[in-house]
């Protein structure tokens, strides 16, 4: 009996120690993988950075025949298309999450929630093919001509809607990205809405507040962190999307003011050019440098979102 108790006490000390050690190893492993990824991208891209310098970021030249490479055009395409995707997806996701949690009966909302989650599971290449065969013709025949007729003669804004209405371009890429990231943002917002204390909402209603006032003054302040988290997750997803954007953006390496003109993103450019780049070449180094630039953009987006969230929470 004493031997059994001694063995139990020994196991009781060893198991927590093993558990803590494994958790530390898991956290350290993720951090080491993260550092290794950063180091590899910058190390492999150092040739491009040393040859082109800061001109690699600001220039829009991409001419493999003359060994001229830069990230400017792809950087603009990445930022503009992802911003369009977030701007379009944010109100749609917010409205969908609010409707599912606050307006729709639960017997219906659970099925719609499952459908939205299934939408998030659709492979990006399938969405890209759908965009190419369905969305691009719709944009070419209806959406782009309509926008051009409305804004084509408005000073300054006309630059954004100039050019041919071919269906492809940054605007179409942004729309595809909005469709892709809406399920992710909706899921996080819906969880935030569900965690809002019922007592707060019922108290507001009992004081005579309308549904709009409860949403604006009670629910939104409570779910601000979840909303920002959903936007950051969706934006990060949009920044790194490859195949869906490749089908509809046009894959032309130049920057333009027009949202109708074909362009490129960093991820799509890497996917298209990687197989044609020799190991150790300047072109391969430029592609790795593009990956490093994309990672820096993701860091900046995350940092700005955290800073914005802190400012919002302080003002409350």
From TrEMBL:
Which chain regions cross the lipid bilayer? 21-43, 71-100, 112-139, 159-181, 287-309
**Lineage in the entry?**
Bacteria, Pseudomonadati, Pseudomonadota, Alphaproteobacteria, Acetobacterales
| Species name | Commensalibacter communis
GO BP: phosphate ion transport
Residue span(s) of domain ABC transmembrane type-1: 75-305
Tell me the protein's name: Phosphate transport system permease protein
Membrane topology designation: Multi-pass membrane protein
What molecular function does GO assign, one term?
Answer: phosphate transmembrane transporter activity
Similarity comment text for this entry: Belongs to the binding-protein-dependent transport system permease family. CysTW subfamily.
Described purpose of this protein according to its UniProt entry? Part of the binding-protein-dependent transport system for phosphate; probably responsible for the translocation of the substrate across the membrane.
Q: So which domain of life are we looking at? A: Bacteria
Q: Name one GO cellular component term.
A: plasma membrane
PROSITE patterns in the record: ABC_TM1 (PS50928)
Keywords (alphabetical) are: Cell inner membrane, Cell membrane, Membrane, Phosphate transport, Transmembrane, Transmembrane helix, Transport
Please give the Pfam families that the UniProt record associates with this protein. Answer: BPD_transp_1
> Where in the cell is the protein located?
Cell inner membrane; Cell membrane
């Amino acid at each position: 009996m004493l031997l059994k108790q001694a063995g139990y006490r020994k196991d009781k000390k060893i198991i927590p120690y093993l558990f803590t050690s494994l958790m530390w190893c898991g956290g350290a492993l993720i951090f080491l993988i993260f550092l290794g990824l950063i180091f590899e991208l910058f190390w492999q891209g150092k040739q491009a950075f040393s040859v082109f310098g800061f001109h690699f970021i600001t220039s829009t030249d991409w001419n493999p025949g003359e060994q001229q490479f830069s990230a400017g055009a792809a950087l603009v395409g990445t930022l503009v298309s992802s911003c369009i995707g977030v701007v379009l997806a944010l109100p749609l996701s917010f409205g969908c999450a609010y409707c599912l949690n606050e307006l729709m009966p639960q017997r219906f909302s659970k099925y719609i929630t499952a459908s939205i989650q299934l939408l998030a599971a659709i492979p990006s290449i399938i969405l890209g093919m759908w965009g190419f065969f369905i969305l691009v013709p719709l944009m070419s025949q209806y959406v782009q001509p309509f926008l051009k007729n409305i804004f084509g003669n408005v000073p300054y804004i006309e630059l954004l809607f100039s050019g041919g209405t071919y269906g492809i371009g940054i605007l179409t890429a942004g729309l595809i990205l909005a469709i892709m990231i809406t399920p992710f943002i909706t899921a996080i917002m819906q969880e935030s809405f569900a965690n809002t204390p019922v007592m707060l909402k019922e108290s507001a209603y009992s004081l005579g507040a309308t549904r709009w006032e409860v949403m604006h003054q009670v629910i939104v302040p409570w779910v601000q962190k979840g909303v920002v988290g959903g936007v950051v997750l969706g934006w990060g997803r949009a920044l790194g999307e490859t195949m869906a954007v490749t089908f509809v953006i046009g894959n032309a390496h130049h920057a333009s003011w027009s949202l109708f003109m074909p362009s490129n993103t960093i991820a799509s450019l890497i996917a298209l050019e990687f197989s044609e780049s020799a190991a150790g070449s300047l072109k391969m180094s430029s592609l790795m440098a593009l990956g490093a630039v994309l990672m820096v953009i993701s860091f900046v987006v995350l940092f700005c979102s955290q800073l914005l969230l802190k400012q919002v929470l302080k003002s409350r």
